[in-house]
Design a protein that fits this description.
By secondary structure, the protein is mostly helical. Helix content is 64%, strand content 0%. The N and C termini lie far apart (36 Å).
Length: 69
């Protein structure tokens, strides 16, 4: 039986949790509570405020916005 492979932004989640020490649910809540709404504004905010790398910040924001606030 083939293993299920996670694709898209969610593929980054295990490394995000390991590197930044917070579960993805916490990052999603931080994004939700931000007054910012545009993709790149949120990415830039995560990078500046939390020292997150671009790929990780982009994955979190893309996944969050795809789900709809």
């Amino acid at each position: 039986m083939a293993e299920s492979v996670v694709k898209g932004p969610a593929a980054y989640f295990p490394s995000i949790e390991k590197k930044y020490g917070r579960p993805v649910s916490e990052w999603q809540e931080l994004i939700r509570s931000s007054p910012l709404t545009r993709h790149m504004e949120l990415v830039s905010w995560l990078k500046a405020e939390y020292g997150m790398g671009h790929g990780h910040a982009n994955a979190l924001v893309a996944h969050f916005l795809a789900e709809g606030k």
